[in-house]
Amino acid sequence: MGLYSITTKILKSIAYPSELVPSIEEDDGHHHFDPVTEHEGAKLGMWLFLATELLLFGGLFAAYAIYRAKYPEMFMLGSSSLDVVLGSVNTVILIFSSLTVAVAVKAIQENRIQLVKVMLWVTIICAAIFAVNKYFEYTYKFGKGIYPGTDIFYSIYFAATGIHMLHVFIGMAVLGVLLRKVYQNKYSKDNFTAIEIGGLYWHLVDLIWIYLFPLLYLVG
Amino acid sequence: MSEAQESNYLENGHGFKSWFYTVDHKRIGVMYLWAIGVFFVLAAIASFLVRAEHLTPGQTIVSADTYNVLFTLHGAMMVFLFIVPGVAASFGNFLIPLMIGAKDVIFPKLNLYSFWLYLAGAAIFLIALAAPADTGWTFYTPYSIETGANVILITFGVFVLGFSSILTGINFIVTMHKLRAPGMTWDRLPLFCWAAYATSLLQVLATPVVGITLLLLIGERYFGLGFFDPAKGGDPVMFQHFFWFYSHPAVYIMILPAMGIISEIMPVFSRKPIFGYKAIAYSSLAIALISFLVWGHHMFVSGQSKLINIIFSVITYAVAVPTAIKVFNWLWTMYKGSIELSTAMLYSLAFIFLFTIGGLTGLFLGALAADVHLHDTYFVVAHMHYVMIGGTVFGFFAALHFWYPKMWGRMFDEFKAKIAFVLIFIGFNVVFFPQFIMGTLGMPRRYFNYAPEFQTFHQISTYGTWIIGVGFILMLWVLMRPLPGKAEGNPYDSLSLEWSMDSPPGTFNFDEIPTVTEPVYNYGTKIEAEE
Amino acid sequence: MDNNGGYKSLINIWLLLMFLTFITVWIAQFDFGALNVPIALLIASLKASVVALYFMHLKYEDGMTWIFATYPIFLLFLLIGFTVVDMFSRVIN
Question: What is the CATH number of the domain that holds A193?
Answer without folding.
Answer: 1.20.120.80
